[in-house]
């Protein structure tokens, strides 16, 4: 079985987002981690390999520091890594990234493609399903259980108020939801082995892309307007209620 896992390197959940003078996110001095939902995808890919045989290839996009995320996945038990690293990726939207990823995956044998349900930095939850569309293969999102038999899979996915059971034939894309498994920690032996595992680096030019091929470019980010401090209304209940209604009507303009 050939398994491809797409992962993203994100800011630590405790990191404070800072923008530089040009409106770009400043990653200097920030702790970067594998997107937590992608860890479930990595673990599921490794478990499928351990049960059915085959190979797990981890694919990521990002700057040079993204190699750290790929090496961690290799230390967990993946076999190969591919990193697409190019300055043109910095301002690419989800559509562009999915097209680039589809080009990478098309050259890798694949039965199962796994990714996290959502990235904790942008919360877009788009790339995996856009990838499936680009490859013209089925996709199942928010999977909490995955069973494989031959060339078919039965996926239990989380939906509002319950679960849904879906059967698909390979190749197919699955996005991992929390609860799918418990990701393992890299062992010391795994970390040492990861240093010798192949990690291929590609640019947009290697894939036949250029910055001009991308349909949308993100020019600038901005932080939300800081919330104003709360106000305390003193006085008797009737007087305070009247003052509150006045403020909601005249200042907040919600009445």
Automatic annotation (TrEMBL):
GO terms for cellular component: cytosol. GO terms for molecular function: electron transfer activity. Pfam families: ETF. The keyword Thylakoid does not apply. Keywords: Electron transport, Transport. Residues 22-211 form the Electron transfer flavoprotein alpha/beta-subunit N-terminal domain. It comes from the Bacteria. The keyword Transport applies. Heterodimer of an alpha and a beta subunit. PANTHER family: ELECTRON TRANSFER FLAVOPROTEIN BETA-SUBUNIT, ELECTRON TRANSFER FLAVOPROTEIN SUBUNIT BETA. Belongs to the ETF beta-subunit/FixA family. This is Electron transfer flavoprotein subunit beta. It comes from Desulfosporosinus hippei DSM 8344.
